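User: Show me a protein chain along with its predicted structure.
Assistant: Here is one chain, sequence first, then structure tokens.
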Amino acid sequence: MKVSERYKRLYHYTTWGGLVGIIENRCLWATHHRFLNDYSETLLLKDKLIELAKPIVQEESRKFVDGHPDQRRIMKIIETSSGFDAVVDHNTDVLVRGMYATVPSDGPYITSFCGESKDEYINANGMLSQWRGYGQDGGFALVFDTQRMGCMLVKEYERLAYSHIELDRVVYSNDEERFKEEFEPRLSNLRGFIEGMIRCIHEGALDPMVQNHENAFRDFASCMSRYKHRGFKEENEVRICAFPAIRDEKDGLDKDQLKPEKERTFRTKNGEQVPYIELFNTLDQDLPIERIIVGPHQNKEARVSALRVMLHGTSIKVSDSDIPFIG
């Protein structure tokens, strides 16, 4: 099911400064995954990949040994060193690290939303846990039309150089049913890639299945980018995962025939330079914002008034949260 069929609206929580920047610049920031507030981002899938890959590695390793012209010598080397199971474990680890190595160091960049709740009160007033994150400074929730957001993402991909970009729901680590439903079909498509990688390891030569890995990369990147620790489940997260293409000058391709490269930008946070990209900033199109919720704050009525003046002439509605939280 498309995310737009499940959630007609998405909620993006931000500060006053973030809100003004989004409206004035008509863009959203996507932050490099290494600088998000979850240190396990993209790495959490590793154990699942090992679980998936190990039987395939075992099968391919057995094929290699059984088909080797000097099988007895190979088996003797394996048995006198660490044993066949240890070789499989080692090769599985090498394989998974190799899969992560196929992901460009410059991605993914992530923009996060909360999906609509089944509770209409939350949809009208925002989520208390999100408001708490802004404390006495309050906060704002921008409510986006999901379908129109998806259409803008297609235009972003068509105009600029991305290897992969998508808008979809997060799968949390304690939701085995959704993992099987959404991830296992994609990860099963990695079988040919895994088999090729193991042949590379054993034979020391590049396998065609590894060279032509675009589909495998897309499936792996999607799962890796959307698998998240169960502790964040309350957020009901939907995210944009964007992988800007990295242009290699050695490719010798005609620059005039290539899409423009996505510009990377930096901001300072806690003394560190945080890389991010601005989504939709080249489309010359308003973002699909339907409504803005002013979060709990002692001066929320004044904030509502200020926003209504700022948004005069637009179709964006402004409301305030009636959750009695004062930070």
